[in-house]
Amino acid sequence: MKHQYGAGTVVLALTSIMAAIGGVRSQELVPRLAARADNLTIPAAISIGPSQYWDGNDGPWSSFPIQVGGGSTSQNVRVFPATAAYNTWTIGPDGCPSGLVNDCANKRGGLFYTNQSLTWILSSTYPTSIEVNLGLDLNANAGWDTVGLGWQGSGGPSVQHTVVFNVFSTKYWVGIFGLSPLPTNFTNQNSPQPSYMQSLYDNKLIPSRSYGYTAGNQYRLNKIFGSLTLGGYDQSRFSGGISFPFYADINRDLLVNLKAITAGDGTNLLPGGTISTMVDSTVPEIWLPQSACSAFEKAFGLTYDTSSKRYLVNGSTHAQLTQSQPTVNFTLTNDKSQEVTISLPYGAFDLNVSTPIVSGSSYYFPIQRAANDSQYTLGRAFLQEAYLIADYDRSNFTVAPCTWNQSQLSSPSIKSVLSPNLTAQVNAQQSSSSAQTSQTSQGISSGAIAGIVVGVVVLVLAVVAGVFFFMRRRKTHAELVELSEKGDGAANAKTTGPINELGDEGQVGELDAPFLTKPQEMESPYKFDPSRNGYMEMEGEHYGTGKHDAHEMAGTLASHEMDGARPIYEMHGSDVFEMPAHRLTKYGPPEK
């Protein structure tokens, strides 16, 4: 019993050590779970695919598709991104009166029929309140409806109950999609209606109130469609660039300093010097001082048409410009004296204007005479070669020259711009994660040390047990030899072979009681063959998880002999039960 008690103590000690290690592991898991619980869900920037149509009666221009109306009643229309607008404009049926133009609905980008939308809520007729300084303001039917990005079925995000103006005027030939996050005020400043951009951000569909846009063009690389990204920008579409702070006037927030305009031959096309001008994709033309327009007229042989209020280009002038391919360079500068030059080839000015601006169609050069400095504007024509990034959370914007690498353009690189609030949360989480990683690393090192200690203990116990049983076996064998020499002849006759439980004649051959071995441990790695040297042993099976989960049966030193003259009966015994033990799991507290 003394040996059994010692072995049991060792098993219990090992079990306690393993349970303790399990406890350490479970404590280390707590910060890991906490870190997972604190993970931020950060929305990605949304890249809106172009419609792959070229629209407009003063372009053509690359348009983008949206859906207006909820559910199965949504209607597809095409629009132009408008940096000065903060709501969505569609063209209503009244915008295509009989006889205006053939295929009017399609040429105007598709019509929105409010009476077919189950989610349309009419408010009233209100002024659109944009481009007032250019004389392009108008009234339209205003209301609310669901607007989704992309073609119907494309899976793009949508916003419910967003402001929609249903326009019938021909001042804007195709509808527009407002990019500004400013609210709409129908009647007064006390009930602002959130813009589409603001709603996307509030609904956690984009990471910031920012966008990246370039208009695309038809004269490079077999036509390049426009690019529009909400909540970020497309890195593949530009290089370099400089940043500007927003201007204090919210209606002219994207204001830059235009330092110079020069022709490719060095001709000065901005003789009056630096001006402040607004970048605005809502309108197609570049609005300049009268002196600058006169310089363009002289340099390129242009003639101003007072009827259409456009610089129309006749056939001979167009042929000459097409052959000479002049370039016009616009140099912008910011308050840090940084400069960027956007170069426009003649293709950027080689546009077409049609009904109802003129009768039929004509080539035209997209510059406009500004009446005052509030009208100075770099319109959509400028954004054919420039990439614009506006960040309304930080009140700054960037203008950069577009790149025209075919392989680069075929692989968009969309980058998200995180709002300051999201940036602070990410930084805080990264700091917390770094601290937890350091703590976890220290815990793992302690666990590794504990594992090594347990391994050494088990190895020492195994060696000691092996030596103990080897010495005991030698001692018992010597005692058996001595007993055989003292026995009778029959016993001597059987010493040449192993002592079996049954003799050759079916008689019981047992050792005297003093030489019976004590019970062996179940699931011991040091089992003895009962056919050797007279050892009696229960055949153990491995029911545990491993050889180190061995547990002893309580035994007795009392011995019982069966009468050799009687038939052999089995001795009564009790069932064997394992001691409850903890089993170390990979993660968490130990299982029982």
Automatic annotation (TrEMBL):
SUPFAM superfamilies: Acid proteases. The keyword Ligase does not apply. Pfam families: Asp. One of its GO terms (biological process) is proteolysis. GO terms for molecular function: aspartic-type endopeptidase activity. Residues 64-400 form the Peptidase A1 domain. Keywords: Membrane, Transmembrane, Transmembrane helix. One of its GO terms (cellular component) is fungal-type vacuole. The keyword Membrane applies. It comes from the Eukaryota. The chain crosses the membrane at residues 448-470. Belongs to the peptidase A1 family. This is Peptidase A1 domain-containing protein.
